[in-house]
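Aim 2, interim progress: modelling of the adenosine-5'-diphosphate-bound target.
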Amino acid sequence: MFELDRVQKSYPGVVALEDLSLRFARGRVCALIGSSGSGKSTVLRLLTGLVRPDRGKVRVDGKPLTSASLQSARLRLGYVIQEGGLFPHLTAQGNLALQPRYLGWTQTRIAGRCAELAELVRLPVSVMQRYPAELSGGQRQRVALMRALMTDPPALLLDEPLGALDPIVRHELQSQLRTIFETLDKTVILVTHDVAEAAWLASRLVLMHDGRIVQDGTLADLQRDPASAYVRRFLDSARRLPEASA
Ligand code: ADP
Ligand code: MG
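Predicted structure of the complex, ligand included:
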């Protein structure tokens, strides 16, 4: 469904992606993991067309992403940017209504869908009338997630969508997301720092470092047959609870 073909992307003084090729199959969940600055967000930005590659091709459904195809490609995408990206001058409900309104949904249908998703992400309906500045970080993230799910798009690009949530809500939402991914048959690319979260939600893990792919496989592949010492270190960095002393 999505493809990066030998993509190069540089910013002044930094190579964000180095000759990177990746394909994402329809209906599958893939997690992009790796330390900060490894190029994960850049991969998502390229797939949305927000960023153009210096070299190489970006394809969606086999077709190159061009300025002409961008609009229709975006409508088929739910995208949560790393900081949530809510419009500050609109209430939560106003943010959620933007795309549905553009698509001609009625007010009743929009309100119904908002209520459905608020329940899914465990957000009180009263929160919907507040502006982003009046929400906690975790509430903003849940609204951003709701916005991505509003029109039930076939593909979801999620950039650390649960990063600012407290552990209990995060755990709950991880379970709900897994159900959403499985039952709705979505193509999902999820960026996360958290290996446990990645392995819980995705069958395929792509570990990135310095703009390159270090390893691409299942958690078992990475554990049993790490491609480099970095893979081992990355996996070992996930802490377990220490044993309580007697
Ligand atoms: P990640 O999401 O894995 O933390 P990013 O894809 O955001 O990494 O960034 C990869 C590299 O590109 C980093 O070194 C980052 O500083 C740099 N970078 C990303 N976007 C920009 C930008 N707009 N301008 C300059 N440098 C950028
Ligand atoms: Mg990022």
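The first helix runs from residue 40 to 48. Residues 40-41, 82, 159 surround magnesium ion (ligand 2) (CB under 6 Å).
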